[in-house]
Amino acid sequence: MNVIAVLFALLLSAGSASDDSARTETDQGSSVTSKISATVQADSASQPPAYEMKRYYMVFLRRGPNWTAERTPEVETISSGHMAHILQMEKDGKLALAGPFLDQKATDALAGIFILDVETVEEAQALAESDPSVKAGRFSVEIIPWLGPSTLADCFNQKPAEQGK
Questions:
Q1: Do 132 and 78 contact (CB within 8 A), yes or no?
Q2: What pLDDT sits at residue 45?
Q3: ∠ CA 86-92-97 to the nearest 5 degrees?
Q4: Where are the beta strands (DSSP E) in 20-105?
Q5: Which one, out of 27, 101, 105, 113, has a CA that is 20 to 30 A from the CA of 3?
Q6: Are strands 95-100 and 110-116 parallel, antiparallel or unpaired?
Q7: Model pLDDT for residues 24-69, shown as the tens digit of each residue
Q8: Are 98 and 79 in contact (CB under 8 A)?
Q9: DSSP state, 157?
Q10: Which residues of 87-117 are buried (b: 16+ CB within 10 A; e: fewer)?
Q11: Coil, helix or strand for 50?
Q12: Pairing of strands 110-116, 53-63
C-alpha cells in the first residue's frame, strides 16, 4: 500500500482541471454518476486549482514464474516486444504512464506499472495480457481501479515543445 500512496501523492500533484464532478464505475463495470468532493477553492495562491477526477486502471507488473535477470537473445526479443507494446498503447491513447520500479530484489518483486486510460477492467486485462513479457511469463499482473486526476495523461504525454505552455 505504501507504493500506491506515494504514487497517488506524486500523480495528484501533477493534475489540474476546472470541474468538481466525475463519472465513476462500480467494480462490476456498471456506470454510476456521482459528485466527487475534489474541489479546492482557489481563494489564495497557496491553494491548488479545482480538478476533475476519473477512473484509471493501475496494472502492477510483478516478476513472473519465468523471470530471470539473465539477458539471453530470447529475453532481449521479449523485452523489445514489451517496449513496442508500451509505445503502441501510448499511440492508441490507452496509456497514461508507464515505468519500472527500481532496486527491487525479491523473487516476486514489483517490476513496473502501467496506468491505463480505458473504459473497463476487461479492456485493461486484455491490454496487460497481450504484453509479450506477460505472455512469456516474465511478468504477472495485478489490476486495480484507481481514481486520479483527469489530466494525468496530458501531463505525462506532452511532446518536449509543448512542455511549459
A1: yes
A2: 61
A3: 45
A4: 21-25, 31-35, 53-63, 95-100
A5: 27
A6: antiparallel
A7: 333 333 332 233 333 334 445 666 667 789 999 999 999 999 999 8
A8: no
A9: S
A10: eebbeeebbbbbeeeeeeeeeeebbbbbbbb
A11: coil
A12: antiparallel
